[in-house]
Design goal:
single chain, 118 residues, alpha+beta, eight-stranded antiparallel sheet, globular
Length: 118
């Protein structure tokens, strides 16, 4: 009986550890959405382990770093356009996160709907 209880306890700890690791890393990856007015073209963001970020097909919006705080995604971004560079941090609320879908809401009233790039 002791071996059975010990086995169940070990299984439970491993299950919880694996589940929490998966949750913590779930935003890591490449996320894309269609480019409006350009059928078949995609743009987005790549979120890497360790907090580095990069843009996908966006020359004037350069993502540099990311951090997740609860249900908020903080993105350090540099906007390059018309000869002016502006750097800042966007705070986006994670509305939905699944294995293949990421929906973010901004404080400015827009929604970003991404799919995981395969």
């Amino acid at each position: 009986m002791k071996k059975l209880i010990l086995g169940v306890a070990v299984f439970a700890m491993v299950f919880v550890a694996c589940d929490s690791k998966k949750s913590a890393d779930s935003v890591v990856g490449s996320w894309v959405m269609p480019i409006e007015g350009q059928p078949g073209k995609m743009q987005g963001i790549k979120l890497e382990e360790g907090g580095e970020a990069s843009s996908i097909n966006m020359a004037t919006l350069v993502y540099k770093y990311w951090e997740q705080q609860g249900d908020n995604l903080l993105l350090t971004v540099k906007s390059i356009g018309n000869g002016i560079e502006i750097e800042g941090i966007d705070t986006l609320k994670i509305e939905k996160l699944t294995a293949d879908s990421l929906i973010l809401n901004s404080n400015y009233g827009y929604t970003l709907r991404y799919v995981r790039e395969k």
